[in-house]
Amino acid sequence: MNQNQPARREFLGRVGQGMLVAAVGPALAQALGVSTAHAENVMVTKTLNFGKLEPLVAAMQETSLDQLQRLLVGKLSSGEANLAQLIQAGALANARSFGGEDYIGFHTLMALKPAYVMAQQLPKDRRALAVLKVLYRNTAQIHKMGGRATEKLKTVDSAEISPGKTPAELLRKAVHDQDWQTAERIFAAIAKGGPEAAWNDLLHTVEDGADVHRIVLAHRSWDTLDLVGMEHAETMLRQSLRYCLKAEEGTGKRQNGMRVLLPKLLDQHKLLELPAGKRLAEDTWVNEMSQTIFNSTPDQAAEAVAGALGEGMSPDSIAEAISLATNQLVLRDAGRTDKQVRPGKPVGSVHGDSIGVHASDSANAWRHIAKASEPRHRVACLILAGYQAARDRGNRGGEFLEWKPRPYDEQLTGLDKKSPQQLLRNLDGAVRDQDQAQACALMHAYGAGPGANKARPALDVLLRHATSEDGALHAEKYYLTTTTDFADTRPAFQWRHLVGLARVTASEYGTRGAGYTEACELLKIEV
């Protein structure tokens, strides 16, 4: 029995008869296992208010773009707010405005925590730049979508759920039925049991799909709570719930195969009965497992992961292999073709929503969701991560099985004779020249060279560009994905992740992030 069960039983035991019937009607309420008592209660919706944070949250939504940077820099300079508080207010403004429904909106939400992490790694005088760039994007999109008048999240009355089906089951069914009001009221009731209950019950619904935005939004909504505050867990996680509701309108029905496969594998390998595996894999096993996932069909990859879990392999070792498989998509990608070109994404580019970046972000999110969740989700998330990694490889075309990973041998010739300092100077030059191939070769050569604790100087080269460039909404996310994957991967393979980051950084160079130049001017630092 997991440690959350006593608290959950106490929560279910103290809730009374249901108000949910007011929203869904007696017949559906009874079918859901919700009492029909107190039918006279109705759902009341009002503007969300964040108490003492409300003035700063409202400023993020209401301040004109020509005044926003000056306002935020002023608050930092006066000590009225710090970077963490700006992220907190920006995240709540984003949630209230978009509710997980706007493409640019939820990408911006997913960039806020990574921007804060990046800020901590920058020189002190430049730390604000990473955060200000994303907050500028946040407010710009809020204005574009209608400002305060079009806020998506309002207050919601909770349903009082009677014993019977579990809250997670009721929530999942409401999402499958595309019953937005019922789903939000059930989730509000679940959230009364605490953030962990809300998170773990929501994951049953999140695991019904395997697209990048569904997974990364869930992960970042939870992961950002260390800055936003656990008291705002319901607000943050509602974004993920609403994304799932909207996804059910279009893609949900196409996920039915996966929804059948996951419980089958959990049962076949008795994964809900077994303790977490502790067998640490050798390098050879990790490399072979990554190749299996990369070369498999989605069903085969899911089976391979489930089998490894059933054999007692360490979840961390399996997660390493999955992230290495998705990293291959970055290293092998031939780049965008003429038909795939978009503004800021030229022929040959691999930044933004490329399949490699998307797949790597997804695998990273599944990996960290698994670590932050109950035992059932720990195994389910890894199975789904393997499934999605294999599906991503074949889902958007390309000859990934034939294409070779960078760097190519001919690009490495002579680099072993250069000093680490020369390699880093040349890496910076390759990024500025948008020479993806050379950037990969230089990072590989630097990582293969002598010396310990050498990752930080290489990351500093890439961090400055990830901060200044637009990145087509993905620069911050992918920077955090690759740096955490690097830290979580054994020395034999970890530099592959930074080679991928070097390539994507070179690809995205040349399109300055909106608001960045103005922020530099206000902070009186070099652009």
Give me some keywords for this one:
about 525 residues; mainly alpha; 27 helices
Could you explain how this protein is built, in words?
- The chain has 27 helices and no strands.
- By secondary structure, the chain is mostly helical.
- It has four domains: 5-42 and 155-250, no CATH class; 51-150; 254-395, no CATH class; 409-508, no CATH class.
- Helix 6 (83-98) packs across helix 14 (233-250), helix 10 runs antiparallel to helix 11 and helix 16 runs antiparallel to helix 17.
- The longest helix has 21 residues, at 375-395.
- The protein starts with a helix and ends with a helix.
- The model is unreliable at 1-44 (pLDDT under 50).
Radius of gyration, whole Å: 24 Å
Largest sheet: none
Q: Secondary-structure element order, as H and E?
A: HHHHHHHHHHHHHHHHHHHHHHHHHHH
Number of strand elements: 0
Number of DSSP helical runs? 27
Q: Structural class of the helices, strands and pairings? A: mainly alpha
Question: Average pLDDT, to the nearest integer?
Answer: 91
Strand content of the residues, in percent?
A: under 5%
Structurally, the number of domains stands at 4
Question: What's the overall geometry?
Answer: globular
C-alpha termini separation: 55 Å
The helix fraction, in percent, is 55-70%
Low-confidence stretches: 1-44
In short:
The chain is mainly alpha-helical and 527 residues long.
Q: How are the secondary structure elements laid out?
A:
Blueprint: H1 5-14, H2 21-24, H3 26-31, H4 54-62, H5 65-78, H6 83-98, H7 103-121, H8 127-144, H9 167-176, H10 180-191, H11 195-206, H12 212-223, H13 225-228, H14 233-250, H15 256-268, H16 283-295, H17 298-310, H18 315-332, H19 355-371, H20 375-395, H21 409-412, H22 420-432, H23 436-448, H24 455-468, H25 475-487, H26 495-508, H27 516-523
